[in-house]
Amino acid sequence: MSREKWFNPKDKSQCVIRPELQDKTALHLPPNLLVIFSQNFLKNFVKSNVLYQDSDLLQFFGGESILYKSHSNSDLVAIEGAISAPIGVSAIQTAVSRGVKRIFVLGLCGAVDSSLHVGDIVLPTLCEREEGTSFHYLPPEAAASPNYDMLQSLTKHLIKYNLPYRAGKTVSTDAPYRQTIETELTWRKDGILGVDMEMSAVFALCEYLTIPAVGLFVVSDAHDLTEKMDWVWNKKLFEENLDKVFTLLLQMTTHF
């Protein structure tokens, strides 16, 4: 089957596995969803009394996520740990079926551009689609991009809080073990800043659902393409900016 046949805009038939039936609790969620594609992160904000853990879980096809809510913003719910495009999209689409109206994403990306370093902030304005999930939501020629108004708002917040960032194209992939040196050099030539596993699929899903979405990355690792050094993912080096970016997104949600 050709990739063009994965998405048929004329197919209005009911999906066999319906998102609204995955969550057996039938809970209603607030309008703003903040998704972080990292595990064991939000508990730090529970300890500092910024968030609290809800008694319910978000149950979706492929797993479940702890729901974190804000003491000061009743319009916000946060989840973490839904790694990879299929699982992330499953969690988000289920949340949308439960009342979510806007998506804010904090992701981790590997640096493709050689000028980026661990801990740098990247604002994706366009995501190249090298994962498979997005092709079930948009035709292959469609761009996976954040919502324009939310992108402008996020840009203003980054400037207001004096957080240096790089804006531009990123790429999402399903196959980290196929990020060959030749692949990454080609991405560099194409002006790609960073690579992750989820963002293009999230933007495609939200475009399909007409749900506005925006996202930010913190660079978690920089790849050596000379074959002289081992690939290293150094978590500690980017934790400080990860906290700053999450706090920024929390603040931003209060404006919607």
CATH topology annotation: Rossmann fold
Instruction: Please estimate the helix content.
Output: 25-40%
Radius of gyration: 18 Å
Biggest sheet: strands side by side, in what order?
A: 5-8-7-6-9
Return the CATH architecture: 3-Layer(aba) Sandwich
Q: Any overview of this molecule?
A:
The protein has helices spanning 43-47, 85-97, 148-160, 181-189, 199-209, 239-253; strands at 32-36, 51-60, 63-70, 76-80, 102-111, 121-130, 166-173, 192-196, 213-222. By secondary structure, the chain is an alpha/beta fold. Strands 5-8-7-6-9 form a five-stranded mixed beta barrel, surrounded by five helices. Helix 4 (181-189) links the parallel strand 7 (166-173) and strand 8 (192-196). The model has no long low-confidence stretch (mean pLDDT 92).
Give the tags.
256 residues; five-stranded mixed β-barrel; single chain; Rossmann fold
Produce a short descriptive summary.
The chain is α/β, with parallel strands linked by helices and 256 residues long.
